[in-house]
Amino acid sequence: MLQAMASIIGIVGGLGPEGTVHYYRKLAQHFAATLPEEERPGILIDHLWIDRFARLLRAEADDEIRLLLSASLLRLHNAGADLALVASVTPHMFLAALRKESPVEIVDLVEETQQEVIAAGHRTIGLLGTRLTLTRPFFRSGFERAGIRVVVPDEDGMKHLDGLIFGPLASGTKTPQMRHELAELIRGMTAGEKLEALVVACTDLMDLIDPKYLLVDPIDCHIRLAARTLARRQRRS
Known about the structure:
Elements: E1 8-13, H1 17-34, E2 42-47, H2 50-58, H3 62-78, E3 83-86, H4 95-101, E4 105-106, H5 109-120, E5 124-128, H6 131-135, H7 137-145, E6 149-151, H8 155-165, H9 176-190, E7 197-200, E8 215-216, H10 218-236
Parallel strand pairs: 1-2, 1-3, 3-4, 5-6, 5-7, 7-8
Helix pairs in contact: 1-10, 5-7, 5-10
């Protein structure tokens, strides 16, 4: 008889789908490389539709968004998840509220990314992501409180990124033209600035960026924290 898996990680996915695939692949690779077969967790994904999420964001329907995310966390809990990851940066603006009602522990991408950047000693970073990630305090304020200068695109750049993230990238479309446009956007951010690292707070952008930049992938930070949290929970059990 097969031994039951010790734990299950749940992913709130779909926001967007390509990022969720990236999360799944990296989680599976991480645990395959670090744990013996019998100790690896199960992985569940609950899919939310990005077009609905984007519509609610545009309408500033925060209560409906929280209900949408909370319902996903509840489904993961009911399916047996012991730990949950929200596989997108922007929904973390609702993390404090979600934690108050979630039946499953949620791993915080934001704080872990901030701590890794601070520990690396960076003093000036670039930040890419959705308009809300770039402008709301939930992501960038932790850097700024630590004395780190955060450089973001100008208004046209933010509009362009939002169009990419909620448009073609959400359906998996990537082209050389997108890569060129993103390079120009980053070049504008670095005019007169010396960026020590570029925090790419949207997975779908990662492989469109010239690797000459020191890239910080919040997903990597998130997965490392999830693994540590899972190990801690298993030691307690």
